[in-house]
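User
New here, explain this?
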Amino acid sequence: MLSICNFGIVEAKGSNNLYLKTIMLMPRIACRIAIVTMLALSVFTTTAQSRWTEIPGIDLSKFKPSDFTDQELDIPYYLKHFHTFANSVTETGADKGFINIHVWRSPNDNKPYNARIMENILSLAWFYCTNRPWNIYYSSPALRVRLEAALSFWCRIQHTDGRFSEYGALKWNLPATAFATKFMGETLRLLKAGPPIDAAVLQNTIDADRKAIMAVLTMEDLYQHGRNYSNQYTNVWAGALAYLSLFPDADISKLLPERIKRSASDFQSPAGFFYEAGGTDFGYNFNTHHSNLWMAYHYSRGTPLAGSFIEEEKRFYNWIGYNAVPEPGSIYFTINRAIEMRQKATTTMSYFTISPLGEAVEGIRAFNLNSEEKQKAIAGARKKLEENWPNVPPLAPGEFSTFSPYAFLHRSHFQWYPSPQQKEAAYKKLPYIKSDKFIHQKMDSRQPTVFTYVRQPGYYACFNSGPRLKPQQRYGIGLLWHPKAGSFLQSQTDTENAAWGTKPESGKLFEADTLNAIFSINNKTIEPAPGNRDLKAGTLMISYALGNDGKKSIAFKEKNIIIEVQHRGRFTEYIPLLLNSTDSVQLISPGKVILQKAGESITILYNAAAKADLEETTLRAGKQRVVVLNLESNDSISYSFNMD
């Protein structure tokens, strides 16, 4: 570098000798001109040399669908768009290494302080480290420099105590930190076996990952946050186990089992669900939480730690076994969804159909793809790829997960699919399949939420009650299912006109608020208790107040369900029905509606004086559309579902 004063050159360190000798022989003015020229040339040369080589696109037509294995049929999409993604890594400045493209997470959150964006380092590492004939990016120098820059940036944005931020600069939180450990765990596994990268960058990354793991395992405030958002915390099960598979560590080895043991009751309700926002959420429970368990089981399989995951899965799938019902001729299960706290999941097919813990937990097998269904899905995906080759869907920047690191997270992890016979055996043990007559109740211990399930020969019903925990929740009848026709009523989350319930002429749906139900069997009051229990046989009656001006009761009889509503003034009863493309629902006459499903008839009878109409909606539950039967009445109404 050159240091300059009014008298010309005072010091020259590391400069070009020819430039220096020339300048020292010049008059002062000429010297200054030469210096400016030399500096400009030097900056130009340095800039030209520092520019990263552009990562080229790929011509898929030079390859064939048969070049991709059955496990790689989704890769052409990512392969085609990888250059766009990788070239988005910021090349210069304070944010050098930041992945500056809106393809993972909300565009509004795509900020350099958000470590969640940098989870996509895994995508960079996967293409850099995966040696396949079609992967033109394997060991690419142009990709390496971007990968190293991204890793260095990730290390720079970490707090000294190991935490990362997400929603604002210096706003350190659990999800940014715990998720980082999961994705970085898989990244480090790839890098250990892959082409070389800068040793200092790699060591810094290893150190940063360990700091993040230790932060999650030792900071009590992060653990307390995890008690309400279990899917966020349990990322560290996966991340820590991946780290330990690479780098033995006494501290992590001691802390991890302690946290897992403590979390058994803190993260999971005695009813069976994993806590999300302090309640239940099928989306996060099925999706992120089970991603965490999948990876954790991969690394712990055959060890005592795996037993902890197996036991919690047994409890969870007991919960799911009561809250998800099968659709005839389909792999879909419709969910008792309206109690969900955060996301909106109508069916199990919205989320995971893979869980290797099915190897050890029989209850999982009923809901996962079996080996034949998996092969059928593969054949369909290959056929679609061949028919459209070499075209793939376009990249859609701005969408939440158009280039997601989850696409690469589980590719090396253990998979297990039940045989058709194993799946059928598990299916037959589902409570409403195993028995055609029972009353079962589950209750949380943290909140007095009560979930009641009634099986009669003609139907299966889910009824939900308790305090209003989140505005999107809806209580009351959540799901009705016919053993031959499938689900025919599903209360819809976060709706006023498509959730089952009663709405006064001027006011909100009563079932969108706290619902304190009274339960009785054969006129004997039942007091709910935390946990799971079967109730005595008989006719279950559930009743509750409708504000200060009314009351409602539901009688679950052997062949029908009878609802009685009394409320001063005009009100509407909303009944959200589910219809497949071949189903129909008709207003037959005043007081009678017939729903035809899969060759079965379900009759809804109501007071003839009530005004009835059918309202199509844009809502769907899996492949079924939601059609709402509205019954408008004054002061009172009685109606029934009849499954004769």
Observations:
- The mean pLDDT is 92.
- The first strand starts at residue 2 and ends at 5.
- The longest helix spans residues 28-50.
- Residues 54-219+229-253+371-416 form one domain.
